[in-house]
Amino acid sequence: MTLPEYLRAQQARIDSELDRLVPPDAAPPATIHRAMRYSLMAGGKRIRPILCLEAARAAGHAGHGVVRAACSLELIHTYSLIHDDLPALDNDDYRRGKPTCHKVFGEAMAILTGDALLTLAFQTLAEVDCPADRRVRLVAELAVASGTVGGMIGGQVADIEGERQTPTAELLDTIHRAKTGALLRASVRLGAIFAGASEAELAALTAFGEHVGLAFQIVDDILDVEESSEVLGKTAGKDASQQKITFPAVYGLERSREMAAQECGLAHAALVDFGERAGRLRQIADMIVQRKS
Amino acid sequence: MTLPEYLRAQQARIDSELDRLVPPDAAPPATIHRAMRYSLMAGGKRIRPILCLEAARAAGHAGHGVVRAACSLELIHTYSLIHDDLPALDNDDYRRGKPTCHKVFGEAMAILTGDALLTLAFQTLAEVDCPADRRVRLVAELAVASGTVGGMIGGQVADIEGERQTPTAELLDTIHRAKTGALLRASVRLGAIFAGASEAELAALTAFGEHVGLAFQIVDDILDVEESSEVLGKTAGKDASQQKITFPAVYGLERSREMAAQECGLAHAALVDFGERAGRLRQIADMIVQRKS
């Protein structure tokens, strides 16, 4: 199977598990379940859940149970997009090529929909099919990665406060490690923990997640400069217009491309002891650096 | 010790645990930690954590460990107030007698502060000092009580959609069972589960929580009609001006008062097998019905 075929198959597994996970449209109160499904099923690439599945496979788990744990990452990611897109934050009208949640359902419902997805993420992990001591680790891991201290929310705050500040390498590193890095790192760690990985395996997969996460963000910043809104499915060029701190702004485009390639190399190096079980993880790292949207 | 003295001592225990739980003001990014503390330390009555502590005591746990679990309820309650007060929702300028979170820190920060408190609630429960199988139950319990299906968010959505609808007894029951009832019910259940309560004890304490929760909401609705904003520390008379469905609107004031007293009686009846260990729970039920703010 080629990588695109393989990823489509994994996306389908994740989508059907998400469909089972979220209350049906018809369940009262219907509006919020429609809004949750609208944003969740908007055609995301499911990169975080897929990293989770592949990390579990690298650590020796090939079963179906981990798919549900992986879904918690997409619930968190989608909640963060809904809240980020709100008028008070990034004020974005389009996401994944569709009108944003608050454009369709109104601001009040978009706020509550984000809250609901966040809450459902933790319920999901508390109920996955693995021993209770692993489940509490999964919940704590996801909460820390999503939280204020070195986690996603902390990164968003630093990002908002970083606008119009001098773009330094140090500030850039702090923001991206937290804002997107922490959840990508947690994606592989959740898979590894679910699978009962050894400490050595967990450390290696964590390093992989950190390097892939950084590469992902560098490429995201480059694409925001280079690609059209049409290709991205969201408003392009927003970083510059909002004076966000980005890799191209700090290092220039050429050096940013070199850095992404370097992080990709380090991600490969972290997987050296996993052999064929990590074959797809290596391909995904390459794809993240080569992607055009 | 009189009940007011006892409650003040319990509030102090909870406040100092919350202080240990939330990252310090100075921890970067400082703004959100200041905002979290601003709303959390605004002088709440801590009724949910206290119900949790007393339920644990009734089920035989007299130690300190449960205080941290109890704090998760205040984190959820405070996040819901911050998001509820936003301009897109209730648009309230005052809460507990102080300017609301978004009036002080801005809308973007208030949204993220609510998200952060919600996230911290689950991290807290995942890390409390009790066996892992109980901890995953606590996480799932709180998530369901806060969620869309019969939980707090579901109740908020039903409440928003219920404005300007005909106020029927059935709609009122559905909204309040979810909007405030679910978290009050979860408050006693968290304490009971933490303490390792038997199924019979858990069922009795759950019944107590449901009756107390209903009494609490009836009295809240009555106070909104009868008391001034100054006494309540929040805008009074908002239910009527927003055409909310309330107990006085459906049943009238006199019948609402009778219903609150009846629920209080049922709450007492649920505790019949607990003897002196539930003494404070009984006093709290009485206080909830007799309170003036």
Q: Beta-strand percentage of chain A?
A: under 5%
Oligomer: homodimer
Unreliable stretches of chain A, pLDDT < 50, 5 or more residues?
none
**Helical content class of chain A:** over 70%
Secondary structure tally: strands of chain A: 2
Terminal CA distance of chain A:
22 Å
Structural class designation of chain A: mainly alpha
For the record, the count of structural domains of chain A works out to 1
Largest sheet of chain A, described in full?
2 strands, antiparallel
CATH architecture descriptor name of chain A: Orthogonal Bundle
Could you explain how this protein is built, in words?
Two copies of one chain form a homodimer. Helices cover 72% and strands 1% of the residues of chain A. The first copy, chain A, is mainly α and 293 residues long. Chain A has a single domain (3-290), classed as Orthogonal Bundle (Farnesyl Diphosphate Synthase). Chains A and B meet through helix 2, helix 6, helix 7 and helix 8 of A and helix 2, helix 6, helix 7 and helix 8 of B.
List descriptors.
homodimer, 293 residues, mainly alpha, Farnesyl Diphosphate Synthase, two-stranded antiparallel sheet, 15 helices, 2 strands, globular
